[in-house]
């Protein structure tokens, strides 16, 4: 193994650790807080978290094994099953992000009718569609033997090496698959979040007008207070843009290089090095580690839940410590000191 392979192995290990811990923490918060479970977006977040967890414990370690052994991990049937699972989980996670963006668009643009437009029953229907959509492409790839070990990415994924049908059919399937997963999700994210950003800017302008009118009326206001209000205006305008840029930016940064490489791979004249393929695969895997922070853990409700869990654990430890001190209190210490062995040890 050269230095690049060692770096990629360490990167995959880091992604596995961060993804596993962060996604498990999201599940713990979901189970601990009943308010999160009552919310409709919680279903989409739960589906996204399960997809990321399964991808972390099934595909990422096998990619690490493929990197170290320079070969296929396991038998052909095992690799086909893993490739089927990767196709299903990746598609389901992309569509879950698109569903979350639609939910937030409805919540911001139609706040008064949100509870009638997006109910748990509606969210279940959307999740059912994501599973059917994901299962259809995964099953088609498995039936036509378009999954297997790919040396360029050192993983079991979509591959033409064992294709039992013609190259043209594989090209059509690959283009259609990425168009109806990555491209469809990207378009939905852009349309919904840009509409959310537009509404947020309108609200910010209204708040800014009210704030400026208040500052004009308050002639005797201290300059530091005025400056603080103006800084809050600027932060308010940047907050929505920063959040939406994070949603769309992480999606494009993590998935776009891998998808573009898979499409360029269909033309044999385009040279693609294995190091570039491994880097693109690591970027795609890193989305599973980013999603818990982007969609859950950085939100106030999840942060508060994590704080409550930590405080509860610390309180329980403190109570256990107090119980131990109570059991081994002064009377126990006196009895130990009054024992013949202690007296003999203290004698000159």
From TrEMBL:
Q: Name one GO biological process term.
A: adenylate cyclase-activating G protein-coupled receptor signaling pathway
Fetch the Gene3D superfamilies from UniProt.
Answer: Rhodopsin 7-helix transmembrane proteins
Keyword Ligase tagged? no
**Domain of life where this protein originates:** Eukaryota
Q: Where are the transmembrane segments?
A: 6-32, 44-68, 88-114, 126-149, 169-196, 244-264
Domain G-protein coupled receptors family 1 profile as annotated: residue spans: 22-295
What UniProt keywords apply to this chain's record, in alphabetical order?
A: Cell membrane, Disulfide bond, G-protein coupled receptor, Membrane, Receptor, Transducer, Transmembrane, Transmembrane helix
Q: What coarse category fits the chief subcellular location reported for this protein?
A: membrane
Quote the cellular component terms of the Gene Ontology held in the record.
plasma membrane
One Pfam family assigned to this protein is 7tm_1
Stated membrane topology is: Multi-pass membrane protein
Localization, per the record, is: Cell membrane
- Which GO molecular-function terms appear in the entry? G protein-coupled receptor activity
Q: Which SUPFAM superfamilies match?
A: Family A G protein-coupled receptor-like (SSF81321)
Q: Which family does it belong to?
A: Belongs to the G-protein coupled receptor 1 family.
What does this gene product do?
A: Orphan receptor. Displays a significant level of constitutive activity. Its effect is mediated by G(s)-alpha protein that stimulate adenylate cyclase, resulting in an elevation of intracellular cAMP.
Please report the name of this protein according to its UniProt entry: G-protein coupled receptor 26
Q: Which organism is it from?
A: Electrophorus voltai
């Amino acid at each position: 193994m050269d230095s690049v392979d060692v770096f990629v192995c360490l990167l995959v290990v880091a992604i596995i650790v961060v993804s596993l811990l962060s996604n498990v923490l999201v599940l713990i918060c979901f189970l601990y807080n009943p308010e999160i479970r009552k919310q409709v977006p919680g279903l989409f977040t739960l589906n996204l978290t399960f997809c990321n967890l399964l991808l972390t414990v099934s595909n990422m370690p096998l990619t690490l094994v493929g990197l170290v052994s320079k070969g296929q991990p396991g038998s052909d049937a095992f690799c086909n099953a893993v490739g089927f699972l990767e196709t299903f989980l990746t598609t389901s996670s992309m569509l879950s992000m698109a569903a979350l963006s639609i939910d937030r668009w409805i919540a911001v643009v139609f706040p008064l009718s949100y509870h009638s437009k997006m109910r748990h029953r509606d969210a279940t229907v959307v999740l059912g569609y994501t599973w059917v959509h994901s299962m259809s492409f995964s099953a088609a790839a498995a039936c036509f033997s378009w999954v297997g070990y790919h040396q360029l990415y050192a993983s079991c994924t979509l591959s033409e090496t064992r294709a039992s049908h013609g190259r043209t059919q594989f090209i059509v399937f690959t283009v259609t698959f990425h168009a109806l997963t990555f491209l469809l999700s990207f378009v939905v994210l852009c349309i919904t979040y840009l509409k959310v950003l537009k509404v947020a800017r309108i609200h910010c302008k209204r708040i800014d007008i009210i704030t400026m009118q208040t500052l004009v009326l308050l002639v005797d206001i201290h300059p530091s207070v005025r400056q603080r209000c103006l800084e809050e205006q600027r932060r308010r305008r940047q907050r929505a843009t920063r959040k939406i840029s994070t949603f769309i930016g992480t999606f494009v940064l993590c998935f776009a290089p891998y998808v573009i490489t898979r499409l360029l791979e269909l033309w044999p004249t385009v040279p693609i090095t294995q190091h570039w393929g491994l880097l693109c695969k690591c970027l795609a895997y890193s989305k599973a580690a980013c999603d818990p922070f982007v969609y859950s853990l950085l939100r106030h409700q999840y942060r508060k839940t994590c704080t409550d869990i930590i405080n509860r654990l610390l309180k329980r430890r403190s109570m256990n410590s107090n119980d131990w001190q109570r059991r081994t209190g002064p009377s126990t210490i006196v009895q130990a000191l009054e024992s013949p062995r202690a007296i003999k040890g203290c004698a000159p």
